[in-house]
Amino acid sequence: MGQQKHAIVTFKAETSLAEALRAIPNRSAFIRAAVLTALDNVCPLCHGTGILSPEQKKHWEKFAESHRVAECEECHEWHLVCTNQQGRNAHRKPRS
Q1: Torsion over CA of 76, 47, 42 and 67, rounded to 10 degrees?
Q2: Can you point out the beta strands (E) in the chain?
Q3: Residues 6+ apart with CB under 8 A from 64
Q4: H or E element: which one contains 70?
Q5: Mean pLDDT across the stretch 2-8?
Q6: Model's pTM, two decimal places?
Q7: 6 CB contacts (<8 Å, ≥6 apart)?
Q8: What is the pLDDT of residue 2?
Q9: Which residues of 35-48 are buried (b: 16+ CB within 10 A; e: fewer)?
Q10: Element of type H or E holding 80
C-alpha cells in the first residue's frame, strides 16, 4: 500500500486566532481534527450554509407538520421531536 498523499491548505485568520493557535504544540493535527469534527456535524439540509433553498423550505414545512424543535430536559440541547413518537429520549436506553 502506498503512502497517502497530502495537500497543503491555508486560510486567513484573525490575529487573535493565529496567536491562540501558536500556543498549540501540533497545530496541524489540531486543525485537522477541528475541521473533521466540523464536517461531521454539518446540517444535512443546508450543508452548513444556514440557509435553505425555496424547495428545501417546502420540504421542511411539510416535515414540520409532524415534527417540532424542543429543548432536551437532560442536556438542554435543541433537537427534533416527532409528534407521533412522544416520550422517546435519546439519553435513555431502550427497554429490552
Answers
A1: 30
A2: 67-71, 78-82
A3: none
A4: strand 67-71
A5: 83
A6: 0.56
A7: none
A8: 65
A9: eeeeeeeeeeeeee
A10: strand 78-82
Asked if 84 contacts 66 with a C-beta cutoff of 8 angstroms, the reply is yes
Confidence at residue 55, expressed as pLDDT on a 0 to 100 scale? 94
Contact 53, 43 (CB under 8 A): no
CA–CA dist 10, 49 (Å, integer): 21
Contacts of 43 (CB under 8 A, 6+ apart): 50
- Rounded Cα–Cα distance for residues 63 and 59 (Å): 6
The pLDDT, as a whole number, for residue 90 is: 60
Residues in the chain: 96
Q: What is the grid cell recorded at 89?
A: 429520549
* 53 vs 57: CA distance, rounded Å: 6
Specify whether the CB–CB gap between 56 and 67 falls below 8 A: no
